[in-house]
Automatic annotation (TrEMBL):
<dbReference type="InterPro" id="IPR049453">
    <property type="entry name" value="Memb_transporter_dom"/>
</dbReference>
<feature type="transmembrane region" description="Helical">
    <location>
        <begin position="40"/>
        <end position="58"/>
    </location>
</feature>
<feature type="transmembrane region" description="Helical">
    <location>
        <begin position="12"/>
        <end position="34"/>
    </location>
</feature>
<feature type="transmembrane region" description="Helical">
    <location>
        <begin position="89"/>
        <end position="107"/>
    </location>
</feature>
<keyword id="KW-1133">Transmembrane helix</keyword>
<dbReference type="GO" id="GO:0016020">
    <property type="term" value="C:membrane"/>
</dbReference>
<protein>
    <submittedName>
        <fullName>Uncharacterized membrane protein YgaE (UPF0421/DUF939 family)</fullName>
    </submittedName>
</protein>
<keyword id="KW-0472">Membrane</keyword>
<feature type="region of interest" description="Disordered">
    <location>
        <begin position="349"/>
        <end position="376"/>
    </location>
</feature>
<feature type="transmembrane region" description="Helical">
    <location>
        <begin position="112"/>
        <end position="130"/>
    </location>
</feature>
<feature type="transmembrane region" description="Helical">
    <location>
        <begin position="142"/>
        <end position="163"/>
    </location>
</feature>
<feature type="domain" description="Integral membrane bound transporter">
    <location>
        <begin position="29"/>
        <end position="151"/>
    </location>
</feature>
<keyword id="KW-0812">Transmembrane</keyword>
<dbReference type="Pfam" id="PF13515">
    <property type="entry name" value="FUSC_2"/>
</dbReference>
Amino acid sequence: MGDMHVHQRLTRLRLMAPSIGQCAAGAALAWLVAKELLGHASPFFAPIAVVVCIGVGLGQRLRRVVELVAGVSLGVGVGDLLVSWIGSGAWQIALVVALAMAVAVLLDSGSLIVLQAGSSAVLVATLLPPSGLGGLNRMLDALVGGLMGLLAVALLPASPSALATRHATGMFGALADALRQIAEAIERSDSALAARALEAARGTQTSVEEFKQALETSREIATISPLHRHRRPRLEGYEKAAVPLDHALRNARVLARRAIVALDGSSALPPWLPVALRELADATLLLKEELATGRRPERAGLAILSVASRQGAQRWGFSADVMIAQLRSIIVDLLQATGTEREEAVAALPPLDVPPEAAPTPDEKDLAGANVTLPS
């Protein structure tokens, strides 16, 4: 378990390395610009603004710059105005911070603008009492830092398609692993193995959120950076696949839960089900490869359709009917991930007459947001 945690941390460090490099280079550049070109004695807001703008998180950097400059301006403005009237002290700090943050909340709901307004007001009320153009200089430093942060993103960018691909790999791998583990659990009649598959699948939501953030950042880099603007079309495949993949993982969790129930109850399950699950896992990895190379996922689509077309119509009982319904939902999700419209994906499934009472009753935390496709 310890080795796994170390590996996960090293993987995250590798993924975040470009952002760390951008922060370091941008902070140094912002300090030099504010100090040497603008002549500010201690322009600490400039490198701070770079770190806040770029961060080691992903996405919304353009919005961060606007919120950062607005928050600093508001905090400095309110702080300079009030402190020049009421002086510095404990109650003055409380009043200045409360007013600056309250005004920020009224102007915008963004958390960064509110926090930056409060922290800037604290600095003005304690370390940096009003003095001439000090407030204006701090606002300029924040603007310089924000612009240098964007410049660092533009000139020292990570490849947007590579960034999206690295984060997508975890989602595709998790889905394929879950499908294969469920297939093995069915073949072995091992409910404990199905439980482990469920536990592993439940731990994938972080990967899903990180992929969505990475996709947002990739779009942002392709917009900001002239070096990577031509890669924007390669991101379209991931943009189409993001939500359906999330749904497929959620449906896989429900499938694992039902497999536990079926195996604990020694329910009869169709012999073709493990084969279909493994082939669907292979199709998932094929989809990953085609999206990574920028090709239209035609081969993956054909592989998914192949799994859909070979389902039997024989009834196997309640648990089996529920599992087949979940398998059909995952097939629809994956077809949508290839760019197929939902109506067309549903139409690709062979008709299956399953009574309404066979509808699954999944745990909300497993299915929240999933795109369940039950047969009519």
